[in-house]
Amino acid sequence: MKNIDESTTSASPKSLMSYRKYWAHRLTPAPVLPMSRAEMDELGWDSCDIIIVTGDAYVDHPSFGMAIVGRFLEAQGFRVGIIAQPDWQSTKDFEVLGKPNLFFGVTGGNMDSMVNRYTSDRKVRSDDAYTAGGLGGNRPDRSVIVYSNRLREAYGSTPIIIGGIEASLRRIAHYDYWSEKIRRSLVLDAKADLLVFGNAERQIAEIAHRMAGGEDLKEITDIRGTAFKRTRTPGGWTEIDSTHLDTPGRLNPREDPYEMKPEVGKGRNQESLPDDVQVVRFVRDVPSENRDSSVIRMPSFEQVKADPILYAHASRVLHVESNPGNARALVQQHGNTNVWINPPPIPLTTKEMDAVYELPYTRVPHPVYGDAKIPAYEMIRFSVAIQRGCFGGCTFCSITEHEGRIIQSRSEASILREVEEIRDRVPGFTGVISDLGGPTANMYRLACKSKEVESACRRPSCVFPSVCPNLNTDHSPLIQLYRKAREMPGIKKVLIASGVRYDLANESPEYIEELAKHHTGGYLKIAPEALSDGPLSKMMKPGMGTYYRFKELFDKYSKEAGKEQYLIPYFIAAHPGTTDEDMLELALWLKENGFRADQVQAFLPGPMATATAMYHSGTNPLRKVKADGEEVYVPKGFKQRRLHKAFLRYHDANNWPILREALREMGREDLIGNGKRHLVPTYQPAGTGGDAAKKEQRQKRSSQKKSAGGKTFRTQHVRHNDHKRDYKKRK
User: Fold this and answer.
1) Model's pTM, two decimal places?
2) Where are the alpha helices (DSSP H) in 487-619?
3) Given a cut of 50, is residue 255 above it in pLDDT?
4) Which residue segment(s) compose the domain that 535 sits in?
5) Is residue 224 part of a domain?
6) What dihedral angle (degrees, nearest 10) is formed by the CA atoms of 496, 501, 503, 509?
7) Could you tell me if 644 and 679 lie in one domain?
8) 673/633 same-domain check
9) Does the pLDDT value for residue 626 go beyond 70?
10) CA dist 675 to 61, 106, 299, 583, 592, Å?
């Protein structure tokens, strides 16, 4: 048995496929992982070793988390069952496969259940792309908590491991946008035995094999990429106060809430620490030889709940300690319990990535769904994931917090084999590969030029404020992959649907040429996200000069190919750092360039994101969080968030009343009129504008009545597309 307190920072983890297979491998693989007792009987299974409970419909495809983890564990020799979208009103659905021999694995699905269920305005969505028929309502709010609690009701002390993006982004105390509260680590609220964060293959393989060997899950505390409960810091460890990274304080002088006190819930209870735990306060660092046995003590749950500035500080510390090459363990007290968070997992090698993606997936939904369409599957069934991770570091995005910033790429041969699989096996294939991509389209095989520099780096982004000179930006392997894929027999076209990081693409004009001439279907979506320096600096996105450079090259190569193609830019409304004036500037830019967005996205403060810390605290954790730190303007409230979205859809008549009101308040009435230079017209088409329009019309009639000595004037509305027509007033 391993020493539970040995170092968790080994740089040479055991290869995923080197474990000795569990004895049940003679009963696997299954044609499809079973979802019922009848399927288990057909396979000759008396029980499952591991049961995965998921908030998504079960699709046996490597774009779905439950399929990857299930098939991977099966390849390790374990019998794996799936409980997909169970009815959470009772324990009945949770008991359908019986009790697992090792553990339950619980995930909310490919998306966070709250993001899946609610819009950024907290309105309930009517649909769910991960449900058969696209119907909403088949998963509960905070699915991981609800599912875990039902399992506890049904099976008492049976081990529960939680994972997936919902658990990954809630591994510490976090801001919850939907309740506007700081919530505890999910490992506590879900009453789970262990939380795995990030892509979980490395963690889950070792956990399963060690449990199969007789180890108690509660004693397995040395695995990277895991978080768990602990009453106190073990002996032999050095505790470092997180203030060695920042000296946090309130923006306005008050009593220092960061003063460490011995009371439980107010700070570290030093009397409970063993004698051989060395507590280090306010030091810059510890000796290199002691780093592997040092843990950073973060502000407690009670402290970050009471003080938004301490929340921002904790967020900064978490992100600073995110590089697998140098991250240390973190600990955060919640009442009488410590939540211990081991360093992130070591990224997968190319060989390991190939093995994971070439498992025997059926690539179709489980037969139980019949002919029902699952929208998320329909969207990705002809696509291929070629990489994981993202080093962009966008503050509003959760990819880096979940998958890490080190790119993990598959081999070219493995990717091409999957293209052949799609061509030969997937029903309905017409010869078009819908995507070769990942979190970002063009980070395939890009990495730091020096492993030593990479392992020591603490920058949150490799491309902001500019592309790092240590970053290899050679797109040649990706260009070669594109060419080989589109030249395969039976492949008519290969499209790129993943987002293109255009600042990176500018480093390789040849890539832009390949993209424009062969892999764009008329429109290419890219994401500048904002126009002004204020919000761009808080997003960690490049300036518009980078966009214009990319557009120049894209237009040039499209023209050379004889194609009329367009860039479709995406923007985010109401992001921290964005003022009304910034959104007005963006609206004018959109109008000048002829863009009319069909859908717009308002910033959604997801748990653990850096931008969420800005949203909650009003300060900037991209810099040291301190008393005189940088304040961030945060657009909040339904009215202002609605206004920012309205600026993006300036052409929608329903938004004109709120835009006219805002323009008047901003002193920009010169933009209200019926000419080309105006942003919104003076008239309001009948049947548009909703309550705001009605209110505006009532106020206008009241004003007209007063100015006309009590006589009421009625306005004859002109049509939306008749911009040259003047108002006609009739008594």
Assistant:
1) 0.88
2) 502-505, 509-518, 533-539, 544-560, 580-592, 610-617
3) no
4) 520-649
5) yes
6) -20
7) no
8) no
9) yes
10) 53, 57, 56, 21, 13
